[in-house]
Amino acid sequence: MKQSVQSVYDYCRFGIAVCRQYSSGSAYPSVYLSTPLPGIPKPVFASVDGHEKYETKITTLENGLKVASQNKFGQFCTVGILVNSGSRHEAKYPSGIAHFLEKLSFSSTAQFESKDEILLTLEKHGGICDCQTSRDTTMYAVSAEVKGLDTVVNLLSDAVLQPRLLDEEIEMTRMAVRFELEDLNMRPDPEPLLTEMIHAAAYRGNTVGLPRFCPPENVEKIDRKLLHKYLQSYYCPQRMVLAGVGIEHEQLVQCARKYLLNVKPVWGASTPANVDKSVAQYTGGIVKMVKDMSDVSLGPTPIPELTHIMIGLESCSFLEDDFIPFAVLNMMMGGGGSFSAGGPGKGMFTRLYLNVLNRHHWMYNATSYHHSYEDSGLLCIHASADPRQVREMVEIITREFIQMTGTAGEMELERAKTQLKSMLMMNLESRPVIFEDVGRQVLATGKRKLPHELCELISNVTASDIKRVTMKMLRSKPAVAALGDLSELPSYEDIQAALSSKDGRLPRIYRLFR
């Protein structure tokens, strides 16, 4: 037994051919590990040459539609159509059309009788579908087996260009929208509502400040005729990208020519001349919503009554060079809830943890957000605390904004840059995320910056870049959103004065009686 173990050890360690025997007594052939096995074909490994490994291929069809793809090995692919259309384009229409179109997506079309038929068709290829709208983009996406690409592109073309928009479907959508609006006001997490409010305050009545959710008074106004009028202006090939991840580019172009090149939409010829080309006008301002938050979450461990404040300042568009320093600054601020499990990777060494949550135990939340669009951007901090401590909480946040102008420490800056790069690369491991990245970049700029290019730009950010963009940001008027019991909320003028001061402190108030 000892000898056979030693023989195996020698075989593994030195590649020695050890003579072993079959049970019949005849010997195994002597074969070295480094020698190819006789009679077995040479393996062919999947490989790519040069930049093809990273390259995003882009083709523009005769009608103006862009086709973009990124190869990724695997049995499944994600394919979708992104449209340069969202709530920011509703200035000439009742707000809420994009919200309705999101809910009406993948309903009955010219080829498919119902949503169920669409889902059954996708099921044959192990597929799922989804539609998401944001302030500037509408995205129809399908993930399915690569073999079903032809069916998927046909289905996408039909869902985007040939929806029936039946009366009963529109009525069901009205019910779904009403339910979502009720849920928005009742959910314990106020972040979606605050994000809506801060945009309304920052861009009052224009572009990205228009409501993303359909206002209750517009639910009955939106019908098929209005939807067709909107689609006629915005759903034209020049404003669309067919993006795919996990498929061959030529195959995707072939399907695009077959199903998207000479297709007449159900609403007739496009009228791109009616497109709203307004540029975002940052106004600053305040939006307040007094609301009883005492019974938001009942149960054995109810959430205490909190007041939520979000303060934002204008940053820059994602097309500007300063976008990367702002992304690093946002990562450096970080933050989160007062309870978080995990170490440095969870952002526990970011400024809003070290300077705010670790020092002020009564604060429940302090989180930094960065929203960026093609013509403007908004960097904001969301904080929440007991209603009696709102004034103190606002001062802590304004002081953090002022302290951004100080020189960032070398270790702090390197940590933020490393965290941003790792988050970028980890997110781009996911096929649907790559799809969205490819689609959005090509839709906005006509090309795609690759991950290694972005990492290089992040690495080049210096402490002086952070200081420069912060100084520029602090010259803008603040945007403020406040939700809950606002009896202790400082005036907008006081918040503006604090952000214009050297230390970020609010003007002192002397009261004779408390």
Task: Give a written overview of the molecule.
With 514 residues, this protein is of the alpha+beta class. The protein has two domains: 205 residues, Cytochrome Bc1 Complex, Chain A, domain 1 (2-Layer Sandwich), CATH 3.30.830; 216 residues, Cytochrome Bc1 Complex, Chain A, domain 1 (2-Layer Sandwich), CATH 3.30.830. It is 37% helix and 15% strand. The chain contains 16 helices and twelve strands. Strands 1-2-6-3-5-4 form a six-stranded mixed β-sheet, sandwiched between helices. The protein has a six-stranded mixed β-sheet with strand order 7-12-8-11-10-9, with helices on both faces. Helix 2 packs across helix 5, helix 11 packs parallel to helix 16 and helix 12 runs antiparallel to helix 14. The N and C termini lie far apart (90 Å).
Topology record:
Elements (H helix, E strand, L loop, with lengths): L1 H13 L42 E4 L5 E5 L5 E8 L13 H8 L10 H9 L4 E6 L4 E8 L3 H13 L5 H20 L4 H12 L21 H11 L5 E6 L3 H12 L24 E6 L16 E8 L8 H11 L1 E3 L13 H7 L5 E10 L4 E9 L4 H14 L6 H18 L3 H15 L5 H9 L3 H11 L5 E6 L7 H9 L14
Parallel strand pairs: 2-6, 7-12
Antiparallel strand pairs: 1-2, 3-5, 3-6, 4-5, 8-11, 8-12, 9-10, 10-11
Subunit structure: Heterodimer of PMPCA (alpha) and PMPCB (beta) subunits, forming the mitochondrial processing protease (MPP) in which PMPCA is involved in substrate recognition and binding and PMPCB is the catalytic subunit.
Protein name: Mitochondrial-processing peptidase subunit alpha
Subcellular location: Mitochondrion inner membrane; Mitochondrion matrix
